[in-house]
């Protein structure tokens, strides 16, 4: 896709084509930039499992994120995409990566071109030097070494966001996961 407007049109078309009963999403700046979250929240054709509603308590939001494993459509971002074809994530709770690995009938991953790296080693480097420290900065109040240094130090902080890693080499069944690549620098 050339930009977030085109990506939104594709995401909307996927949602309309899939005709899901239950939709959910994992937090992603790139996904938010497309406008799809606002559209999903405003469309009443499906039950939206919104695990990011600030009006809810943290335990309530966490329970909704668990329920997202059984959604028909799940949309999220990714931390890195290698030219070898693998997808790479680092997550605090695992609510973005668990539904990608298993559960929802259809998963759509949105990513800006800045997420593309050469190989697995560069994906890990991108996560440690860009995605993790910027994710901590995006969530004020986290007290981790990377919040001060800008580089992951594999800390043991209670606020640590580097808890669960996933590398996806292939999806099964074929076609269950779709990557929407946007030709813009987007997200962490």
Overview in brief:
The protein has 7 helices and 9 strands, in the order αβααβαβββαββααββ. It is an alpha/beta fold and 188 residues long. β4 (80-82) and β5 form a beta hairpin.
Please provide a written account of the structure:
By secondary structure, the protein is an alpha/beta fold. Helices cover 36% and strands 21% of the residues. It is built from 7 helices and 9 strands, in the order H-E-H-H-E-H-E-E-E-H-E-E-H-H-E-E. The protein has helices at 4-18, 29-34, 36-42, 58-67, 97-101, 120-138, 145-149, and strands spanning 22-25, 47-49, 73-77, 80-82, 87-91, 106-112, 116-117, 164-168, 177-182. The strands form 2 sheets. Strands 2-1-3-6-9 form a 5-stranded parallel sheet. A 4-stranded mixed sheet has the order 7-4-5-8, covered by helices on one side. A hairpin with a 4-residue loop joins strand 4 and strand 5 (87-91). The longest helix has 19 residues, at 120-138. It starts with a helix and ends in a 6-residue tail after the last strand.
């Amino acid at each position: 896709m050339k930009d977030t407007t085109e990506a939104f049109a594709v995401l909307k078309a996927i949602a309309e084509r899939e005709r899901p009963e239950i939709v959910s999403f994992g937090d992603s700046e790139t996904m938010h930039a497309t406008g799809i979250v606002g559209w999903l929240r405003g469309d009443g054709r499906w039950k939206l499992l919104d695990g990011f509603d600030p009006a809810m308590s943290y335990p309530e939001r966490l329970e909704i994120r668990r329920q997202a494993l059984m959604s028909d459509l799940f949309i999220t971002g990714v931390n890195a995409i290698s030219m070898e074809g693998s997808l790479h994530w680092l997550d605090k709770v695992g609510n973005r990566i668990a539904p990608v690995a298993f559960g929802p009938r259809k998963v759509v991953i949105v990513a800006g071109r800045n997420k593309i790296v050469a190989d697995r080693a560069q994906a890990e480097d991108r996560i440690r030097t860009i995605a993790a420290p910027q994710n901590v900065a995006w969530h004020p109040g986290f007290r981790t070494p990377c919040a001060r240094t800008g580089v992951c130090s594999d800390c043991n902080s209670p606020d640590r966001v580097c808890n669960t890693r996933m590398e996806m080499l292939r999806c099964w069944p074929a076609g269950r996961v779709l990557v929407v690549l946007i030709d813009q620098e987007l997200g962490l």
